[in-house]
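Researcher: Quick sanity check before group meeting.
Model: Go ahead. Protein one:
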Amino acid sequence: MTKKRSPANVPGNLRVRAEQLLAAGGLGLQQLPPDDVLLLVHELKVYQIELEMQNEELLRAQETITETGNRYADLYDFAPVGYVTLDPQGLINEINLTGARLLGAPRDTLLHKPFILFVTPGDRQAFHAYLRRLPAGAAPQSSELEINPQQGPPYTISLESLAMVEAGGKVIQYRMAITDITRRRKAEDDLRHSEEKFRLLFDKAPLGYQSLDENGIIREVNQVWLDLLGYSRQEMIGRWFGDFLPPDYFERFPERFACLKGNGDVCNLEFEMVRKDGAQITVSFYARVSVDDQGRFVRTHCMFQDMTARKRAEESLRATEERLRLKLDSILSPDAAIIDEDLSNILDTPAVQALMEDFTRLTGMAMAIVDLQGKVLVATGWQDICTQFHRVHPQAAENCTESDLFLSRNLRPGEYAAYKCQNHLWDVATPLFIGGKHAGNVYTGQFFYDDELVDEQLFIDQAAKYGFDQEQYLSALHRVPRISRARVKPLMDFLTKFSALVSKLSYSNLMLAKAMSEQQRIEAALRQSEEHFRRLTKLSPVPIIIINLWGDVEYLNDRFLTTYGYNLDDIPSMEAWWRCAYPDEHHRLKGMADWKGAIEKTAREHTDFEPSESRVSCKDGTVRIVEIFGTRIGDQNLVILQDITERKRAEAEIVRQSGQLRALAARLADVEETGREHLARELHDQVCQSLTALSLTLTLLQTQMPPKAAAKLRGRMAGAVALVEQIGETIRDVMADLRPPMLDDYGLLSALHWYGTEFSKKTGIGVDVQGQEAVPRLAAPVELALFRVVQEAMTNVAKHARATKILLTEVEDNGTVRLGVTDNGVGFDQERLGQPEGRHLWGLMTMSERAAAVGGRCRIESQPGQGTRVVVELSR
């Protein structure tokens, strides 16, 4: 929308106008001095340059203004709000594109048309009034009305208008901004309807609601809350919540309210509140705290439910349940205590009542079942003389009860007796036994025999005695039925059988109820046991898997998941387990075969799974060594897959270290034997030779002494020679202990004979050596190790056994050499080895290590009072 320049703005036209102005001034250049002309020319050039610069600035400003105008035009046309300019008559002078769209017509067709044509007829009068109000206000004024565009349905707009008024107060034009508020109006209507629904739900909700500020002041309540406590809204708003609590809750409210604000919510809290009428009610309380964006307290939202009626009902139910529980417990007690209960607790009264009513309709006879306390439990067909007279008056009723109870005490099962009660009517009774004990009686009666004469005067006197209306009483007497004696017997035979049937059924029902109660108790215990079992398996520190007889995995505990990584989705069956945990086919087939064999053996022998070891691949790819064992429970197999990877590593490490220790022990034994051998050699080669030389020298000196030498000196020389010989003998014994020469020269058995003889000389314990020398001889290190074991064993006997005899045996059988050392000493308890009070543990360990160092095994057998036997076995 760039505007063209007008001709007056062209630079050539400006020059023409300037020359015309100059000529009109009447001053020519010819009249000026030359210097002035030159100065004037200079000034003109300067002015010319300034004008050119100003012209350029003007051109740039004009372009800026043009661009700004274009932007304004674009903003005007494409604004989200419709802009309309009306003349004083209400004709449209200007309208942007948005306004044209809102009116549903092209812009050029709207110019100079009355705007009121687009206003719906119902709002045109309001629009005229709106335009009349505009000149009076300096600020824009608003209005809402409905317009009818040329295209489309009517809708609501919002007008924001301003009247442009000249100095005289005349309106020049109206400028209006139009906004489509259809959606806003719909949203407002929806919000209003929502608020109405919320308010309706708020007030009609089944729960009471209240909102408290940070000080516990009530800011909002619903109608249910008001109805709950009996107050009006004006009486509640602005009051402290503690005012509606009883004293004990009143004192604790500040502390509990502070806890609520700190925790943020509270659920199912029950407490008491006080109604306006002073009554206390129990409410269940739920509350949540709302906070602002900074987490600061705003208010609480609390819901209340009146629990008063429910609490009363629960208390009543608990009391009823307690009575029923006590009654049921008593009923279901052992047989001997069953009939200690009231008959009413045992008898199925409604069923018996229905049967007896049928009996009365068929026979016309009155019937009743009465317990041993005279309480009537079932009654049908009773005569008016009893129900309206005898049973009403206290004394007459007592007569009836006394008559019933007196007769019933002497009846036995299957018997019946007819008697005339103290009110002079005939009754017949048969006993009701339950579980072998008398519980009540079945009665029929309230009749006269047809062959007897009724003494009417007796009843007249009775009416006078008890104050009955004589006429009505005699009328009731005349309605008493008369029964033949022949008819009474079959009726009573039937009632006797009926009584026996009721007794049997009642007792059976008791036993059934007791059995059902026991079954329920067992089922409850079973459920509890199953729950305990589930909890134990869930919290078990070992991985557990439960599999049914069809191979479906029914349960995995948490430890199984954390150890192996598989869940029920991964291994729903044993087939999936084999596929996941045993990826190697050969390993999988072996595992499946072992599992099948264990299942069959467990089912056949009714035993637990024998422990076995296997390598299992975990979900993350790691491999673990597992010890598998378990048991069968019903139709399920409970299997424990104990991860023993670390234990196996520890065992391998122990084996490795044990091997190192054995190697070290063997090395130490070798070093010891080498040291012994070296020491024996040194004693033989050095000490013994020196002692021999010393002995020869002393002997030579002794022979060369002068005859006249003192006898004392000769005696000392002889003693010195003897001492040297004794030292030599001792050294030879030490050499033999360090390294027995006959062990190297003659073998193990000969060395044992020699050592046994020497041992007996030193200790006094008899030693018997039996056996034959191994042929061929054992290796020298083996013979030496066995000899040292015998030495250690016999040393232990001398120190601890208090024995009198030792037996040494050497036997070879199928390549196995067995060496035994047996004593008849006090023995010891092998289970106490290693305990502080245990004995000779170190020596036993030394023997075991020496035997293991040469590939043998040392076994020790002993019991207190039965001696000890040390056995070493090794293979060649």
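Researcher: Fine. The other one?
Model: Protein two, sequence then structure:
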Amino acid sequence: MRDRLNIEVIGGGPAGLYFAILAKKAFPASRIAVHERDRPEDSFGFGVVFSDETLGNFLSHDPESYERITEGFAYWDEIDFALHGETIRSVGHGFCGCSRAALLGILQGRAREVGVELNYRSEITDLSRFQDADIIVGADGINSRVRELHKEQFGPSFEWRKNHFIWCGTTKPARAFTFDFTVNRHGIWVLGVYQYNKVLSTWIIEAPERTWASARAEVEHLSEPELLAYMERLWADRLGGHRLISNKSVWRTFPTIRCEKWSFGNIVLLGDALHTAHFSVGSGTKLAMEDAIALADALKGAESVPAAFTAFEAARREEVEKTQHAADVSVIWTEQPHRYWHMEPLQAAFSMLSRSKQVTYENLRLRDPALIDRIDAWFAAKLRDQGFDVPAGPPPPPMFTPFRLRDMLVRNRVVVSPMDMYSAEDGIVGDFHFAHFASLAFGGAGLIFSEMLCVSREGRITPGCAGLYQPEHVPAWRRIIDFVHANSDARFALQIGHAGRKGSTRVAWEGMDQPLPRGNWPLIAPSALPHYPFSQTPREMTREDMDRVRAEFVRAANLAEAAGADMLELHMAHGYLLSSFITPVANKRGDPYGGSLENRMRYPLEVFDAVRRAWPDAKPISVRISATDWVGDDGITGPDAVAIAKMLKAHGCDLIDVSAGQTTPEAKPVYGRMFQTPFSEEVRNEAGIPTIAVGNITTADQVNTILAAGRADLVALARPHLINPHFTLEAAALYGVSAQRWPLQYDSGKEQALRLAARDKADADRMRQMLRPKSHRK
């Protein structure tokens, strides 16, 4: 990169100014100019928030501006969560707030010091005047003119969040970052508060969708003074006589902005012009200034402008997308507060703190061990109230507490998820399955699932699938289940299902979902639609077919009882037969079994009722569902999953195993850690039925986070158990849970594991403490 560059920055907000400062320091011989449409003293909004980690970034890149920013900031490490008259405080979070106007003033002054040219009241309507520029930086905010001029090249998309909100200030001090709620005749209102200097705080007041629908006619067209007066009445008990302060405090909705491309020619976008993440996970100013740092660093390390833009995107895109995903998950809490309204304040507080997955059970233990101790004690006390013998001091972590469904008691909350092994002969499992389940039993999980056992030969996915359609299948499962019961505390569930239109395919390692090269059997489905274009086309089921398949499910249930299973699960997920009745992407019937969700559930509920009648009343039945088809409103959505769960509950279902997708090749799943857990939370808390969470859950920390936050009652792990069948024993050693049963033959290893785990945990905690961002409290 040559020393003399001509850089034009469009937008004089924090991102543009901070980039200009850093670029001028890196290339002092360059001409760098900032163009801002407003006056230097104009500022819209109130405070901005930075974490300790971000402040450390500022310190290392420009100590002078860092010192000025931190001289007048308000620092806190407490978060207060107020619900139902109780306030839960969590410590150890490390934030600072400062005035947006003050921040702009600091950055303007610093930019002048280093020689940046500042141009105010400079409206840029096109870029033709910058033909001589080496670099044009579009840092002109959410309504970016630069992005709009080249929208075909940048490919922006906009997703508007559901809540309406206003941004205002107040003279009421805030001693912590505060989440609060109030209720009037319109519904639940949400409040976020943080202090940003010694005398002023920011208030963000949100109207969730339900509340807005009721309140809109009353509040939408109020003038700014009238709106603030309304809010002062609504929050009078919180304000304590203080007034709200306006600054364009009008109703807004938040757009999440994403751009397919971050640069075009010599133009690059920065900050809100490039991307946004909902304010529920922090300040957009933080993201914008981190962009400025990354772009300046990329210019310093690259040989050309295109190479710098490539390096900038490589350095930032993944981090930005992670933040946006965290925000998309986080914002559900304030968009759907009714989902959590029944929770006790302590659990609701932990749910709120852990909502974005950035704070977890172990992460919070590092920040605020006393709060985790309270959560463990609360969780254990709730179980003692139900008659369980759970120690009070010290209580176990949530994953090592018992759970009961009808007469079935599981000793801990860890579940081995169903996993197809494709290793059966005409449906009969052999030595491989025995060894597989024996090793899992030794590993300590509370509940072990079989793979899907097909209810007929024609209902198999592959020739290698296990079945439960003839008496010859029972002895092998009886042998496995008896061994598991004799050598562990685990309960054993058999899952039964019918492949439907996804049947007659090769085993996984020979070509997943590919039709058999020969020997295919005919398929049935609710509609004559192949799953893939290359799949076999099924025959549309007749009423006679429905009666026969229903009887096959009943037969399988009777065989499962003969095998000694503790629980039965019906597979109504992943595009198999019952799932394909439920989802509109596969069910196009014009009779009473197609059309509305109620009609599409008619046959699955017929099957469930028949199985429930055949299955012993003392034993539970669960149902696995796909809570979304990942195709938006064209398929099953979260609210549909709640409705499905309510119907199943009304018919006697005890537990919903909440999975997602695999119903259509058109699906566009959003993967990530615990990516299906939000659906489990939605079903559990809105349908009022116990759930199993499943899907990319890999650690004991995640298991405890899910349980403590009320997102599920049991947590299933699949692939982690293939890698480490002793996942639960390892976690028991980590948490010092000596009550966890080990095989008698492994007793010598148990004592060593507990001792070494205690040492390793102490070492890991020390390392995490050392790696924590330094506090910038002054």
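Researcher: One line on it for the slide.
Model: The chain has a mean pLDDT of 95.
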